[in-house]
Amino acid sequence: MSLLEVEVLNVRHGLLQAVCDVSFKIDRSEIVAFVGANGAGKTTLFRALAGAHMPASGRVVLDGADVTSVPDHQRVKRGIALVPEGRHLFKDLTVYENLALANAAGRKGAWSIDSVFDVFPNLVPHLRQKAGTLSGGEQQAAAIGRALITNPDVLLLDEVSLGLSPAAVENVYASIGRLVGAATTILLVEQDLDRALSVATRVICMLEGRVVLEDAVGKLSREQIIEAYFGTRQTRSEGVTTQ
Amino acid sequence: MTAAVADNNEVGVSPRLVSGPALAACDVSVSFGASRVLNGVSLEVRTGELVGIIGPNGAGKTTLFGTLVGALRPVTGAVLFEGTDVTHQSMAQRCRRGLVRTHQIPRPFNGMTVFENVFVAAVNTHGLSRKEAYQRALDALSHTDMLGVANRRAEELGLLDRKRLELSRTLATEPKVLLLDEIGGGLSEGESMELLAMIRALSDRGITIVWIEHMVPLLRKAAARFVCLHQGKIIADGKPDEVMANPMVTSAYLGGSVQ
Question: Could A193 and B255 be called an inter-chain contact, meaning their C-beta atoms sit closer than 8 Å?
Fold first, then answer.
């Protein structure tokens, strides 16, 4: 059984249908990159997976249990954690307080405040500092740490490199590399295709709310992904390969 | 693609007479506080052209439109409309000259009917009589196929109709140059084809069109020229296929080094 199954999911923003009939399955320990242009529906999809945006129809099944109508704060307890685009830390709380809050809201497991600091040593000097005063890279580390500390089965990373300096992006990705093999399943949205391909095991490409291409990283060329990204493929296959 | 959609180019992009620039941005730079959103953009759009503008999120596309119509003031550079420097003219003045835009998120006057929304646009542009403005509004609604919903209130409309209304309001001002900001986004394939047909018809009427759109295949069916913006600069300008094959363009969207 797959860890996460998404079945014919439709998500709307009022009149706008942002996610259309999206279905996929994610197995434990997979790292899946979601690639697509602005407005493709990636962030909305992630928010729907995290319970932050209720879908119009379809199902989200986690480890065999239907969590579609479970709200976000309870979904954290079921094992889905989102690192939202733009981080959204509690800026007036300290780094420690941000992590402690998530620790209390989440699940028991291997991740603790200490182990988060092992992965993000750059946070240690800022423990008692308000999160809003950190640099972009440090805030991103704190946001990922806040998600990890809930001990998720599924970690959703939405554009973790957005607005960071190149050095900070390197740091964040180095730490994501350290999570690989830590039995965490990761879904990530990343604009930089080469970077996405360097960490992911599978790619799901979205266009205008739909999944248009999906395969293991080794099986797709950069050109195929670019064509799917812009929708410039000559023939769009209706049946998307599923694994 | 559905069978109903004729595949590209020959069908949609008819050669038409083009002459001097209808609209030009000359070395335009725009800043929001410390961040420079447009950096020395120069662009000429010839009369009768239909130009597609592409570029990743944050490239400066909408800011360019805002500057062209006068919603934003450039820190340097000039905007020329039909050879006249309009940089210091208001939006209303530029609108009366025939330069208008649509908005990415339709902005109808809610609480008013579709007809009233369009009538406001007609009556305020050229000092028409009530009767003339009435006729102008009807013409605009007829072009966008909205006469059937003319008495519905704007807030009751679905997304395609809201986009049509946005287009109708600009048409009621009798534009010479029409700037379309992501008017095709969020529509189904059938709906976007309807919109495409409407926009082509406007182009065939001789209206110069600049169209920002994320959906490259849709834009390709209409535009014979693509301009790609990235980080406030034009990085490619030419035939759609050439622009889309340009490694600088793919890198702008998807990262990676430019060979």
Answer: yes
Each residue's pLDDT tens digit, B132-166:
999 999 999 999 999 999 999 999 998 889 999 99
CB contact under 8 A, A37 and B214: yes
Q: Are B223 and B46 in contact (CB under 8 A)?
A: no
Domain ranges of chain B: 20-91+176-187+207-254, 99-174
Chain A contact set for B253 (CB, 8 A):
37, 191, 229-230
Note down the domain range covering A99.
Answer: 4-230
CATH code: domain of residue A69: 3.40.50.300
Domain count, chain A: 1
User: How high is the pLDDT of residue B19?
Assistant: 57
- For the entire predicted model, the pTM comes to 0.81
Q: Picking from A98-107, B22-31, B232-241, which range would have the lowest pLDDT averaged per residue?
A: A98-107
Hey, of B239, B254, B258, which one would you mutate to test binding to chain A, going by the most A CBs within 10 A of its CB? B254
Residue A236 placed within a domain: no
CATH for the stretch B20-91+176-187+207-254: 3.40.50.300
